[in-house]
Amino acid sequence: MSNEATHWAVKAVIGKGLNGNAKVVLWHLADRHNPDFGCFPSQERLAADCELSRSQLNVHLQALEEAGLIRRIRRHDAQTKKRRSTMYLLGFEEAFQRADLHCAVKSDHTASNENPCPETGHGQDGESMSGNPDEPCPEILKSHVRKPDSNSVREPLKEPVVRGDTVEHTDQDFYEFWQTCPRHRDRERTRRLFSEAVDRGVSPAWIISSMKRYRLDNLGNKPMYVAYSDTWLEALRWEDFEAPHATLNTLPDQITPSPDLATFWASKVKAGSYIPPSALKPAMCAEIIGRGLVTEDELKSAGFRL
What we know:
Shape: globular
CATH architecture of the largest domain: Orthogonal Bundle
Largest sheet: 2 strands, antiparallel
Strand order of the largest sheet: 1-2
Number of helices: 13
Number of strands: 2
CATH topology of the largest domain: Arc Repressor Mutant, subunit A
Order of helices and strands: HHHHEEHHHHHHHHH
Low-confidence stretches: 104-169, 246-259
Structural class: mainly alpha
Helix content: 40-55%
Distance between the termini: 31 Å
């Protein structure tokens, strides 16, 4: 959470004519903002935070963008080419001001163009998003703007130009990796080792998914048995796990299926293994019992109650 972002969000909505839900969306975006890495919650997470459906969420995001409070930037994984969570630029950020200037310059060349560029909603068809004609965007021939007569909600329109201007692409991956690590040490050294691995051609998705599985494997273990973040990278521990194999028709949740936590914790209860007191919330306890994985008495014996 960024205090600067939350303070800005509270004041920014004044006089904008936004409805209550749009304000809630902006406040939750600010709450998800990180001073070092920016704001990039998944749409599912943001919708859950705001207690809105995804379609309602998109309507309010569009209103915030039209009010000049946010900008949405589409992202893709450099290795797998899969769609990643949207990056949200908030109005107080320096990168937001640069994006405004960039759009103003581009708009001078778009008056007669019918097909908007996915980068800004304007621009010459076939023009590189990066501004470099040698590196055209693979999606430039197809606009991501929905037709007004079929759907009033627009998808995020911009592909980030992040090198040196906003946030390094690998920084987003590193932030996710760092948040996943069960045992942290020496953030800068960990960042360097992570970047070196990516520079050698290792997919960030492989490193991150491997760390998620490593963390799950070590749930309940004493810290002394868990590798530090930098040691884990230095030892190339991601190679202990199979790399995700992405195809054009493969969904993200099919690549690294989320573990069945209820079954996992039930097996720990059955085995009499140590379970941290904070590991099982009432909802999880109810699910474990409801599915018949353990009895209520077994759960009580492990120190947990509904």
